[in-house]
Each structure stands twice: as C-alpha cells, then as structure tokens.
Amino acid sequence: MRTVGHFINGTETNGSSVEFSEIYNPATGEVQARVALATKTDLDAAVASAAAAQPKWAATNPQRRARVFFNFVGLINRDIDELAQLLSAEHGKTLDDAKGDIQRGLEVAEFAAGAPHLLKGEFTEGAGPSIDMYSMRQPVGIGAGITPFNFPAMIPLWMLSPAVAAGNAFILKPSERDPSVPIRLAQLAVEAGLPKGILNVIQGGKSAVDGILHHELISAVSFVGSTPVARYVYATAAAAGKRVQAFGGAKNHMIIMPDADMNKAADALMGAGYGSAGERCMAVSVAVPVGEATADRLVEALRPRIEKLKVGPATDKSSEMGPVITKSAKERIVQLIDSGIAHGAKLAVDGRGLSLQGYESGYFIGPTLFDNVTADMDIYKEEIFGPVLCVVRENSYDAALRLTMNNPYGNGTAIFTRDGDTARDFASRVNVGMVGINVPVPVPLAYHSFGGWKASAFGDLNQHGTDSIRFWTRTKTVTARWPSGIKDGSEFQMPTYGVDESERVR
Ligand code: NAD
C-alpha cells in the first residue's frame, strides 16, 4: 500500500514514524493509502532543517525569492490536472471543484510573487534634527500552518506563500485525511528553486499539532479548522508566546428579500449549499427568506433543482456533488437530519438513504432541504458541514438581520435583493467578516484578505492580502543620526526631537 510520508529538508520520508493513519477513498469507502504520523523526532528534524536554511533565505533579495514563486505558479499550472485528480481521490470533491481549490491557492502564490513591493518599509527623512527614521518588515523566522481537510491545496497555499515569500521557513501540518496534495506542492516548490529546508511538511493529527504549538523555535502559527480546535490552538500557542491566528467554523446565512430574482437566488443557493457537499467554511447552510410568500417561492424553486442535482464520484465527469469526507462525518450528518425531524423541522427533500450503484460503501448523502427551521434546533445551532440546507422563515428584513447577527459564527453571509439601500445597510451593519451582495460565496480574492468574525476567527490579522504580510513579518523601526547632527553633551530628558516650549498648544 502507498505510504504518504513527511517532506523534510527536500525529501519525502517516513522519518521515525511508527504509527500510520488510513486514507480512504470517500467515493468507495476503500482504504487507498496510509499516512505516517510524525513523532517528536520528525518534527525536530523538520524544524532543524528550517532553522539551518532560513537565515540564507531571509538574506536572499526579495525579487529572487519572488522569482521562485513565478516558477512555482508555472509548475502548479503545468500539473494542475494531476493535482486535481489526487485531490479528488482523497477528498471526494468533483474534478472541477478540485481545480477551483487549486486555482484559488495558486492565486495566493501569484500574490506572493509581488512580495518585494509588499515588504517595502517606510521612511521619514528629517523626523528630528538630522534624524531619519525608517521601519522595515523582517521575517518572523520559522512559521507553521495547520490546515483542514476541506481545501487541501488552497489553504496550505494561503499560508505558505506569503510566509515563505517574506523570508521565513515554514512547517506545514496538513489534514491527515488528504495529505498527498500538500506533499506534491512542497515537491513543486523545490523544483521551482526553493532551497531545501525552507518548506517542510509534517503529517499527523493532534500530537503533531501539539508538538508545533510547544516548539520553542516556531515563532508564528496559522490555523484553519473547526472552532473548538481553533480556540485550543489560539490559547495554547499564545500561552507559549507565539504569534497566532486561528480560523474556525461557520454557519453562513443568506437573506433572500421579496424583490430578489428568485431563479437567480435559487441557482446561487444550489451551488453555495451543496457545492463540495456543503463542506466549505463559506457554504451557505441557512437560507433566510423574508416573508411567507418569498419562502414559499424559494422552496418551490429549490425542490426541482435539488431533485435534478447529480450526485456521484469525481471520476464521473457529470457529477455535480461528491461524497462527504469520512464514514463518521456521514453518520453525524444523518443523525443531525434525524434530530431536525424530531425537533419539528419540515424535511422538504430527504438525502438520507441515497445509494449509488457500484458505490454502495461510499460516503454519499443526497442534498437535503429543511423548511420551517427555528433558531433553537440543533440543525440550526450546529455546523453540519454536509449537504443540508436549512430554511429559516423571517417576516422582515430587520428580523433576518437580527438572526444573522445573533448567530455565534461570523464567517460569511449574503443578501439577495435588487434594492441598493437594503444591500448597503446590510453590508454596513452585519457583524460578519465577509459579505456577498447577490454573491452567495463571497470569498475575497488573494489581494484582499480572508477572515471571519466572532467564533469563526481568533486573532486580529486575516489570511492573504496585506494582512498576511503583516502576520508573517515583524516590524523593526530604526532612528538614525550621523555625527554631524549630534550636539556635544548628554541629554537626560526623554528625546522629543526639538519641541519648543513656546510652540506648545495648551
Ligand atoms: P479540524 O478542526 O478537525 O482539523 C483541522 C486541523 O486540526 C487538522 O490538521 C487536524 O489534524 C487538526 N486537529 C484536529 N483535531 C485536533 C485537536 N483536538 N487538537 C489539535 N489539532 C487537531 O477541522 P476539519 O474537519 O479538518 O475541517 C473542517 C472545519 O474547518 C470546519 O469547521 C470548517 O468550517 C473549518 N474551516 C474553516 C475555514 C475558515 O477559513 N474559517 C476554512 C476551511 C475550513
């Protein structure tokens, strides 16, 4: 059986790992490979190679570092079909969706190729008598990224691209469910000219994460995953004195106003709710139609679309939605659907019991639609992370806004309306990090930054965009004066650079 190892100092290796975790094919339920689980020795080896390589990389001028990213982008494009196949085989998402996953990550690598401009500092000539002051952004040293299963290409690239382009070495700990694409990306980075040791991949689960959180040579940690683990990573890494950003789960609401184009809103909800089997942190899982008539029209528009949706394995090009990631994920989703029925929600379309010929052991669930969901039900409160869309009926825009704002999560949200005033009011008032106006999945592009609010993110800097450059660098500010500007004698007062008492504003 194929074993997916770590990537340490430019080489794939099982290191000293003695434990392995199985990698399933979610479409068939079969074990297709296994992944090594890192020991402390493996992590130490990765960190040692990072520590050895990083000073020279940091001293390499930024345009040469950027050139590696131009090459890297070219290589990802060259191999995108192979990467997409590998990604689909382990994750289960369709090939087109897998390409989208890679493409959105690749765009962050393109953004990182602009690092020379982004890393420029600030300079003030004459900040005091003969004094110049300048700030520079220096790498943090060794950064680490811990990533979820649902975007095995995009999210590693969100983190490693700005971190490495800024002059850091990087340790990636991908999800143990789909670890192959991250390894291929690291190999491509070395092929693109990245010195060995700058990008290492350590496989594993909680114990590998704990090793990272407590490693004294790792200065900054970026995490993306579920909210309970995000809270844990945030608190643990901060207590260990590291810079940390931790992004968590979501429950994204889409408000549908009575004036919305219902066909377009329903089409949008299909992709946002069921694309990637609902396993996106920006998936819409709650539709909030305003008014009973709007709700009736919405459910009527959704039902035939859901019944037509083609569920199948990624190897079938006509599939629009694949399986969920694991057997236990499927069981949990089915239990939540059962609980929705028990709590009195109306099951408009039931995806349980879907069986595909030849894929009977795959983790497929059909697209499911609940109507008349209320905020006290578990299907509303829990992040289901599966193809289940809940309709919560509200009778006014204010009530729909209140529902969205009272939800503990704040990753993404959307409003569908033709009314500019309502859309503007929504974008301004809603306490959610990413907002779509007639855009159901408002994932910002690489040069803007990605991040939620409330229980969807802990820390104050976002992924990609200029925030990422700030996260992966430290500011140093230099105050410089040359002998010709230095007066004789000592100064005992706090340096104020020439305030004249007569000028003081009282
Ligand atoms: P997860 O929290 O189970 O795992 C994320 C990472 O943490 C993995 O690398 C995993 O190995 C590790 N991990 C798991 N349990 C751990 C523990 N107890 N201690 C330390 N580390 C642990 O998440 P997942 O199931 O892989 O991904 C799905 C979740 O990620 C969803 O909640 C989704 O909303 C969220 N997500 C959020 C964003 C965002 O940007 N906010 C993006 C994608 C996914």
How would you describe this protein?
With 506 residues, the chain is an alpha/beta fold. It has 2 domains: 2-248 and 456-475, Aldehyde Dehydrogenase, Chain A, domain 1, CATH 3.40.605.10; 252-446, Aldehyde Dehydrogenase, Chain A, domain 2. It has helices at residues 40-59, 62-78, 80-91, 95-112, 115-118, 154-165, 180-191, 206-214, 227-239, 262-274, 292-308, 327-342, 378-381, 397-406, 420-429, 465-471; strands at residues 2-4, 6-8, 11-13, 19-25, 30-37, 122-128, 131-139, 142-146, 169-173, 199-201, 220-224, 243-247, 252-256, 284-289, 346-349, 368-371, 388-391, 409-410, 412-416, 434-437, 453-454, 457-458, 473-481. Strands 15-16-17-14-13-19-20 form a 7-stranded mixed beta sheet, sandwiched between helices. Strands 10-9-8-11-12-22 form a 6-stranded mixed beta sheet, sandwiched between helices. A 3-stranded mixed beta sheet has the order 1-5-4, covered by helices on one side. Helix 6 links the parallel strand 8 (142-146) and strand 9 (169-173). The N and C termini lie far apart (79 Å). The mean pLDDT is 97.
